[in-house]
Amino acid sequence: MDKTIFLGIFLGLGLLLHAIGIENGLKLFLHTDSILIVLGGLLGATLVHFPMSQLLKLKSRLKKVFFSKKINYFEDIKNIIVIVERSKKEGRRALIQDIDGIKDHFLKNGLTLIADNVDVSDVRKILRENINFMDFRHDQGIRFFEQMGKYAPGFGLIGTLIGLVLLLAGLSDPENIGANMSIALVTTLYGVLLSNLIFFPLAGRMRILSNEELLQKEMYLEGLVALSEGASTYVIREKMSMLLPLKERMEITEILDKKNDDRNET
C-alpha cells in the first residue's frame, strides 16, 4: 500500500484545521446538510454521466491506486536478459518453459508469439495494439476521477445558491440567517476540497501509474521484438534501457556489465 496518498490527504486536512483552529473547524465548517448537497449531487451526476460498466470498475481502480506495486525497470531488463540467454543456449524449449512462470500478461503474450514463430512485424503490431488498448483503458479511469473533480465545485456552488435563497426567504426571521449563510458558504468549500484534494489528485496519481506501466510495456516491446529478430543480448539490453533516463541507463549498464564480468571470471 502506498501511504503517501493518505499522508497527503491527512496532511492537507490537518494543516487546514490547524490554520482555522480545530474547535472552530469542527463547529463552523462541519455541516451535515452541506455535505449531503455536494455528495448527493455528485453521486447523481456520476450515475447520469457514466454507464454501470464504468461504475463497477471503481473498486478495481481504487485498488490500483492504493495498492499498486512499484515497477523495477532494472529487474524487468534483467529478467528479459535471463530469458534471452537461456533461449539462445537451450533453444525454443527453454523459452516455452520460461513462459509458464511469467505472471505479466503482456510479457507472457509476447514470448508466446515468439515461441510460436510469429513473424517479427506481426509481433510488433500485436504488442503495439496491446499497449494502445491498455492506454485507452487507463484513460477511462483517469477521466472518471477528473469528471468527478469537475462536478464537485459545481454542486458546491449549487449549495451556495440554495443557502442564499433560504437566506433571502428568511430575512424576516433573524434566527435562521446564520444557519442559511453557513450552508451558502460551507457547501462551496466542500466542493472545492473534494475536487482539489481528492478527485483531481487521484486522477493525477492514476496518470503517473499509467505512464510508468506503459513505459514498462514499451521496454518489453523493444526487447521482445529484438529477441524475435535474433539480436544479441547487448542489443536487447540497449534497446530496452534506451527508454529510461540517462542516469538510470548508466546504472543498469554498470550493474549488468559487472555481473557479466564476475560470471566470466568464474
Report on this structure.
This protein has 266 residues and is mainly α. It has one domain. It has helices at 4-20, 22-28, 32-49, 52-55, 58-66, 73-90, 92-100, 105-115, 120-169, 177-228, 233-241, 246-265. Helix 7 runs antiparallel to helix 8 (105-115). The two termini are 41 Å apart. 23% of the residues are buried.
Mean pLDDT value: 85
Query: Uncertain runs with pLDDT below 50, 5 residues or more?
Result: none
Shape by Cα distribution: elongated
Nearest-angstrom radius of gyration? 27 Å
Quick rundown:
This protein is an all-alpha fold. 84% of the residues lie in helices and 0% in strands. The two termini are 41 Å apart.
Helices and strands in order:
Elements: H1 4-20, H2 22-28, H3 32-49, H4 52-55, H5 58-66, H6 73-90, H7 92-100, H8 105-115, H9 120-169, H10 177-228, H11 233-241, H12 246-265
Feature tags:
266 residues; mainly alpha; 0% strand; elongated
